[in-house]
């Protein structure tokens, strides 16, 4: 009789241990989803700001149509991307970021545009949003790293895959954004 209770206690302990691992993985997955929701809010605000910014720049730089087409196409690809933190969405957001850098490069050639109050306000809003996006990306990537680490650690690694927990992607800069960030800033004085 005592052997039966020992077996039941061992099975109960194993079941309790598995439940604890499962619940921890679920909590980490939810933290990651919540972190992407924070990123998504900031990206939505940027998405909504882009048309106003493009229209302001268009008024000054009418012959820069390829830049406007790039921004518009990148914004459309973000709109078509599936919601969530999938690789298509992350790639589309990276393209939009790169296109916006091109738009600001065009603005540098138009001093009267840089002096425009509407452009200054939109630029300040976009700069603030980009800072918030960067902070939200860092938190998202931290949550992703914690989640990925948890599913790869023993003993969770033994059961994570069979319970539907798989490694997730980070929100990284695409090649164009990475090159732009690594490039030294250009300072121009005068016209």
Describe the structure.
About 75% of the residues lie in helices and about 0% in strands. The chain has one domain (about 25-180): Up-down Bundle (de novo design (two linked rop proteins)), CATH 1.20.1440. It is rod-shaped. By secondary structure, the protein is mostly helical. It contains seven helices and no strands. It starts with a helix and ends in a 9-residue tail after the last helix. α1 (about 1-60) packs antiparallel against α2, α1 packs antiparallel against α5 (about 115-150) and α2 (about 65-80) runs antiparallel to α3 (about 85-105).
Keywords for this entry:
single chain, 191 residues, 0% strand
Give a quick summary of the entry.
The protein is built from seven helices and no strands. With 191 residues, the chain is mainly alpha-helical. The chain has one domain: LemA-like domain (de novo design (two linked rop proteins), Up-down Bundle), CATH 1.20.1440.
């Amino acid at each position: 009789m005592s052997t039966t209770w020992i077996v039941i206690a061992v099975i109960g302990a194993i079941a309790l241990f598995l439940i604890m691992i499962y619940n921890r993985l679920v909590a980490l997955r939810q933290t990651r989803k919540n972190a992407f929701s924070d990123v998504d809010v900031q990206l939505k605000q940027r998405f909504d700001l882009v048309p106003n910014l493009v229209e302001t720049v268009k008024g000054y730089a009418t012959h820069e149509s390829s830049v406007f087409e790039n921004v518009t196409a990148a914004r459309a690809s973000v709109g078509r991307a599936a919601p969530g933190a999938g690789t298509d969405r992350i790639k589309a957001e990276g393209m939009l970021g790169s296109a916006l850098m091109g738009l600001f490069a065009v603005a540098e050639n138009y001093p009267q545009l840089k002096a425009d109050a509407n452009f200054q306000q939109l630029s300040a809003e976009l700069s603030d949003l980009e800072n918030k996006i960067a902070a939200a990306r860092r938190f998202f990537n931290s949550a992703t790293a914690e989640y990925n680490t948890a599913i790869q650690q023993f003993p969770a690694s033994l059961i994570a895959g069979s319970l539907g927990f798989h490694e997730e992607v980070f929100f990284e800069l695409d090649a164009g954004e990475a090159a732009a960030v690594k490039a030294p800033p250009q300072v121009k004085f005068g016209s």
